[in-house]
Structures are given as C-alpha cells and as structure tokens.
Amino acid sequence: MTPIDHARLARPDARDVADLVTRLAADYGDRAVTTAAIREGHSHGEGLADAALPDVVVFPKTNEEVASIVRLCYAARVPVIAFGVGTSLEGHVAALSGGVSLDLSQMDRMLEINVEDLDCRVQAGVTREQVNAELKGTGLFFPIDPGANATIGGMAATRASGTNAVRYGTMRENVLGLTVVTSDGRIIRTGGRARKSSAGYDLTRLFVGSEGTLGIITEIQLRLYGVPEAMAAAVCQFTDLESATRTVITAMQCGIPVARIELLDDVQMRACIKYSKLEGFAEKPTLFFEFHGSESGVAEQAGQMQSIAEEHGGSAFEWATKPEERSRLWKARHAAYYAAMALVPGTQGFATDACVPISRLADCILETKADIEATGLVAPIVGHVGDGNFHLVVLFDPGDPGQRAKAEALTERVSMRAIAMGGTCTGEHGIGVHKLHALVVEHGEAVDLMRTIKRALDPHGIMNPGKTVPN
Amino acid sequence: MLDRNVQALLAALLPPSALLTSPEDTRPYECDALTLYRALPAAVAIPDRESQVIAVLKQCHESRVPVVARGAGTSLSGGAMPDKNGVVLSLAKFTRIVAIDPLARTAVVQPGVRNLAISEAAAPFGLFYAPDPSSQIACTIGGNVAENAGGVHCLKYGLTVHNVRRVRAVLITGEVVEFGNDALDSPGYDLLALINGSEGLLAVITEITVKLCPKPEQAQVALAAFDDVVGAGAAVSAVIAAGIVPAGLELMDQAATRAVEEFVHANYPLDAKAVLLVETDGMAEEVAAEMTEIRRVLSEAGATEVRVSKDEAQRLLFWSGRKAAFPAIGRITPDYYCMDGTIPRKALAQVLARIEALSEEYDLRCANVFHAGDGNLHPLILYDANAEGEVERTEAFGAAILELCIEVGGTITGEHGVGIEKLPQMCVQFSPGELERFLAIKAAFDANGLLNPGKGVPTLHRCAEFGKVHVHHGNLPHPDIPRF
After folding, report:
1. CB–CB of A357 and B104 under 8 A?
2. More confidently predicted of B103 and B480
3. Is some CB atom of chain B closer than 8 A to the CB atom of A265?
C-alpha cells in the first residue's frame, strides 16, 4: 500500500481559496462552515483515518446550489469533494489538496415513488435506511445494503453493493438514471425511467462508481423490488472454513436463487457473538442464508440448500422466520465491521475487499486464512460469498509501526492474490486513495483510457483530485 | 475509393482473400438490416486473428481512413452501414468458442460467434446465454455488445450489459485493452458499460467473456386475450405491480396476431384486440405458484381468456407466433418500418392509444409486437415504398412515435441502437450538455473520429440543423442520404 503523497498533488493558490471561502460565506451564510471541528469531520471516512482537511464545508439544498458552488470552484480551480455521511472505507472523502467539501446531507428528500414502475427518485443525501422507511406500506423495497447506513449518493458514487447482491445485483444494476453536476457546473440528467436504452453512451454507469471524480451526483433514480411474499433466514455452522466455502460454491453451481449467503469465519463469529450478543452459536465458520419468494418457493430453495450443507457436514439449520429474529441476525451481520473493530479495543483496521470468480473462492479464502494465521494478526473474515466477495478487517495497534507495516503487507497480498486469480482488489468499497496502485496492476492499458476520460470530463482536475485514477 | 498507397499498405497486412476492393465483392456489405441506408465501402477487410485487426486499425489510424466494424449485419439502425471512403472490418472469421467454465458459469467467445451458438455450446452443462434478440440465429455476440442488444428474456435476465463480464478490444490506435474482469465487479470507471452499446464508435471487440445462466428447471407460458389494446397495456402494469418478474412479457395486437396466424398457425384467438404472452421459469414449485398468481392478475385485469401451456410443445407453439411476427408482417405488406422506443411501463396504455390515433392521422397501418414488460415498443409501420408519399408519411409517423416516447420520459431506442437512423431524435432526447459529454468520451477513445463516423452521437452542429428540420415538421431529415 503506497502512503498518500500529498505533496504530489498541486494545491490551489491560497488567495484563490480565501476569496472562494469569502464568496461562499456570502452566498450560503451559516451553511458554509470553516470551523475546525466540522472540517475535521469532513476530512476522512471510516476505515483508516488518513485525514486531510477541506478549507470549507458547504451544505447545499438544491441541484442549482450544487451547480453554482461547482461553477465557483471551476472558475477558481479549487477542488470540490462530495460528502454524504462519511462511511467510505477507502479515504474517498479526504480533501487531499484542500478545497470545498460539498456535504449533501441536507439534500435528503424522496422526490417521487412510482409504485407501478417499481422505481423512485431520491436526492443524493437520502440514506438507504430512509429509502426503505419511506417505502413502507407500498409493498416495495430497495435491496442494496452495505454495512453502513450510507447515503444513496455515496453508494452510487462508489458502486456499492451488499449482502444480497447475489440476487439483486449492485448499484450498477439498480441505478436507472442520475442527475449530475458536471465539473463546469452544468446540470445534466443521464438515463431515465425507461428500463432499457441504447441511445448514447452509458453515462449513468460511467458516473456510478466514479467516486466523485467526474461529477457530483445529486439525484438518483433507483430500481425497486416487490417485497417477497415469504422470507426466511437460516444459520448453519461448520467445523472448518473449507466446508462452508464449498457449500456456497455448490449452491451457486446449482443455481439456487438464494437472496443472501454470508460467510463468517470463527474469528468474525467470536466478534459478532460478543458485540451483537448473538446467543446459541459456536465460534465456528458459519453461513447466514436468506431466501425470498413464494411460500412454496422459499421452502423448496431452503430444502435444497439444507441438503447441500448437510453433504458438506454443516449443522442443522437454525431458522429465523419471525421478522424480529431475522432482523436481529442481519443487524449482527451489518455490524460485523464494528464488531471486528471492537475485538481488540484501541486498534485500527484495514478493510480488504477481494472479489474472485466463484470457482476460485475456496482457494482464495483458504490461502488468505493461512496467510492471516502466519502473520499472527487478528483479521476476521466476513463476506457476501455468493458473488465471490469477502472482507478482512486487519486489526493493528496504531502505536506500533511494525504491526501497521505487517497489516499493510497482508492487505496488499489479499488484493494481489485476488487479482492473480482473475478477480479484483475491490468488489464494492471502491478505489479511493488506498488502492490506486492495485488499479494499475489490474487494468493495465485501460487505466490510460480512464485518465483520458477523467481529463475529458474534468479538464481542470478539480473533482475529488487524487482519487480513483492514478495520475 | 481508397488511396492506392493505402490499399497497398492494407494488402500487405492481410492474405489476398481477406481484402476486398472491387465493387462486385464489396456490394454485399453496402447495408445492414436497415436497408434504406446504403453506401459501398472502399474496402472490406476480413481478418482472422487479433494481430491482423491491430495491424489494420493501426494502418487506418495512420492514414486517417474510417473503419466500420461488422458482425452479421443484422443491425436495425444502420450501425454497420459502411463509410464510402472507409474500410469495413468484418469479424465474420472470429467464430471460435474459446472456453466454457461451467463452475464460474462463463464462456469466452470470439465476437463473430452467433448469439444462439453460445447457448447451444453451453447446453451440455445445463447453462444458457440469456439475452435473446429475435435475430439470435444470425446476429453475433460482438454486434450484441456493440448495440447492447436485448430480447424477450431481458426483463428477468437483463440486457447484454448485465450479461457480459469482460471485453477485449482494440482501440483505433492499435492498443489492446481489456474492460471488466472475471469477478463480479471491476474497480475504476465502468468502461465495460461504456463499450456496451457504443455502436462500434469506441473500439473493435476481439474477445468477450459472457455470463451463463443455469437453465431453469421448468418454464410455462400464459396466453391472455384482451378486448382492447389499452386494457392489455394496463394488464402489463398490473403483472409487474403484483411483484411478478416474468421471464418474458410480450404484447401483440390484432394486426400482428392475424398476420402471424396465417403464417404459423399458433392458434391465437383472432377476435382478440390484443394478446399477452407471460412466461415464468424457475424451480417447479415456484413456476406453479407464480403461474397461479399470473392467471389471477390477468383475469382481474380483464382478460377475456387465459390459456396456460400444458407442456413444452405447447409452450413453443405459443411462442412460435411471437418469434415469427416480423417475417409474418413482411408477408402482408410490401415494406415495414420497425421502431424501438422505450417508455416507463406506466405510460404503456396511454402511448398505445396515442399510436392508434397517429395511425389514423397518418393513414398508415401499424402493427404492435413488443417487449411489454420493460416498456420496449416495436411498432411496425406498414407501408408501400412505391406508393406516392408513403415513405415521407412513414418517416413522419415514426418520428412522431419516437418523440411521443421522449415526451412520456422514455428513450428513442431500447435495444436497436441509434446508428444512423435516429440521430435527429438524439437531439430531442438529450440536452447539449449531455451530448457534449458523449462527444468528449468519443474523443477520449478516438480523437480523430475514425471509428464508425457519422453514427450514434450527432455533433452539436448537426443538431442545430436538425432543429430547423424539427420546426418545419414533416420535412425529411438529412436529405443527402439515399433512402428506400
């Protein structure tokens, strides 16, 4: 992992920045903030706190306000960094060369819900839990659920996914259209409400996952799904990691349309049992399942899944059919990152995000587990293994440089192992600053094209500089 | 005509049989399935390996010669129509299925492999390739990626963009680039999505990794009859709103069913004003449960009759009418013009009613056969090119339908692409700000505009010209192009 080289990024002229801050204060009053505490809060995400402070934080409320702020930044050549709720794990929101942090949390309205078309339009600052709260009673839901209660804007910008991507896809599949403010401060709309379009280049998917480096996403048209008639969740424990992993691979091979399938290794189970007070489970490799469908469909899927697990020596299924039992289980899963961090108080963690073709999943996980054990570090494994994606939280003592180096080296090996197996160093967290070098290893020539596109859409390099595409 | 020097340079790169330059040899390449636009290319190159593709592109780049990549030439939007000063780069010899990985459920294929051939090769593993454009027996996967092709199955299984994992392509400069990878997600900008649907304007594809899906245990189709088209449109919304995601949801109106029945005898109810085909697939229990629900929703939505296929033979019979719809219409009219607008499903009933009214206004028959589930219309305007004024009326009718699609929040093309055909409507659908982004992306890949010039994205200058055309309604857009 290369340390962030702040010096390499040109900083804007201090006087230009000062003038811009004065102008923003005049335009936005107490919605343009320069206090140290607020700037500090906007200098890093979750994950490793390599902070870099913006010069000012502005809280726009409308597309036009965002456009007007970006136009000022464009004219002054000052960086602008979009900020949702700051749950990024890869340093996306750090203001590496200062500038304006554009906090979209006040753009938090659901703009429309189209029940018949199964879509809705939201402002970027709406959180994923808020979407589902507002959909209550419509019979619809939005499935993408990263661990954190992130904003939809942030999720679109990082192409987030979650526990049920295996059934519903990632943000790539579930964003139908966007409103984007371009680097020169123009408001454009991409995609739309039609389910398919082959008109023009796919700007929607280009902006999805662009991590704020091509434009600021201000509105998102989301695809929604009918709440399934029946849902059931189950837990199955295994004596070893390999059997649990093989169970997943077999299930995927058989095409069982399971909605969620999550693997937690013994260390992660220990963390979750402690942190989320999960009772009645052993500290053993474990799979969490969820099935969606009609009553009979769910029973059929679950029956097939159970027999596959049994073949691999899995325990009898523990069922959670009541909504409150189910939500307790998934709450524990969503809190896995926080549970891991709580495992050794006072530590920091690197989150890895390897994703490999399902046929290489067992190799990748088992080699990684052996690698962790050889280092002596604490690094629980948890993952949406149905789509080949798993995470480590590599814990280290921030006061011990030797341990940090060891943790970094392990993280690096996980990324490179995934890439060598035909996979990727990031299935869902994004590149940010921490994985820039891995992008080059993974994409080679295509990185040049990405750079050209970046220059074409952001000629002055003011959109979240230093992220996503290496200079 | 190619400069003699350029021709000699190209000839040095390819075996003699792989470079065609005489008009009698290049004539078969003068158009694609949109036959009203034609141009004789200066040369046709037919490489059989990637190194030749690289060499040809490098040379064309150096000599500033336009290049139009071509698969099977089934494009309905003129995407593969040649440039008269350029080279057609045919990928017809890239027909190898390189590998099938049943565990990862992927297939690595060359761009000239036919869509259906992938499913045939995957069948022994219990797998299939889901996107199924109607031309799937002929169209190639390379063309499918270039156009982001759809098909009946796309409602449930997604478009080409959702079913392609990795694309290997050659830029106009001859550089080889890989987009995407074998895992679920690929970091950085989503260039894979950019390549899908880029209509040959960004790069020439040389290898594709596609996703394969497990063949469902069972499939069953319901055929529902309706007294009016608008009611059938409303039933489509009712099915989706009930939380059902059918494996196919197609609508045919009476003009279409009558034409089809004479042709394939699928035993469609001919007195019905519209027929819906609703398919469900999956595990046996699920299919049974979903079909019960589909029946209920269709009946409540006013279907006068619902038949459910009893076995595989009957399922195929029900579908045979839909699959044969285009050739069947071709039998009853000298010419037809197929549109591809896509609208939010909710607007379906309203748009169908408006198309009926337009049909009367322009005094042209119109048959509707389309992917109703995802709102992708395929109105077929029936006309006779030899009848005075019908060509002009057909074009005006078509333009009115596309603009209607944009008006209700839809798009001018769901799966056929813009090509040369829908350039004027691009100016209506997209603002200058959006078009500028498209042009910037094009320039990032192909600064000299050599790949498939004049297609896909109009220049702002052309839009200004079209704007004038648009004001004087009924005038023929870009009259310089030979048609019909």
Report:
1. yes
2. B103
3. no
The ipTM is 0.85
Where residue B202 sits, what CATH number does that domain have?
3.30.465.10
**Closest approach of chain B CAs to the CA of A241, in angstroms?**
20
Same domain membership, residue B157 and residue B281: no
Domain of B288 in residue numbering reads as: 218-328
Last residue of a domain, one of B284, B312, B328: B328
Are B207 and B223 members of one domain? Answer: no
Residues B446 and B460 in one domain: yes
Q: Which residues of A touch B182 (CB under 8 A)?
A: 357, 422-423
Task: Identify all chain A residues contacting B143, using CB atoms and an 8 Å cutoff.
Answer: none
A443 sits in the region (left: phi over 0; alpha: psi -120 to 50; else beta) called alpha
Mean pLDDT of chain B: 90
Are B251 and B210 found together in one domain?
Answer: no
Q: How confident is the model at residue B34 (pLDDT cuts 50, 70, 90)?
A: confident
Count of CB contacts below 8 A, A vs B?
275
pLDDT at B199: 95
For the entire predicted model, the pTM comes to 0.88
Judged by CB atoms within 8 Å, which residues 167-226 of A form the interface with B?
Answer: 169-170, 172-173, 182, 186-190, 192-203, 205-206, 208-210, 214, 225-226
| Across A430-443, average pLDDT | 80
Choose the closest CB to B176 out of A297, A388, A445.
A445
CA distance A220 to A122: 5
Q: Are residues B226 and B303 in the same domain?
A: yes
Last residue of a domain, one of B191, B214, B237: B214
Write out pLDDT tens, residues A219-249.
999 999 988 888 899 999 999 999 999 999 9
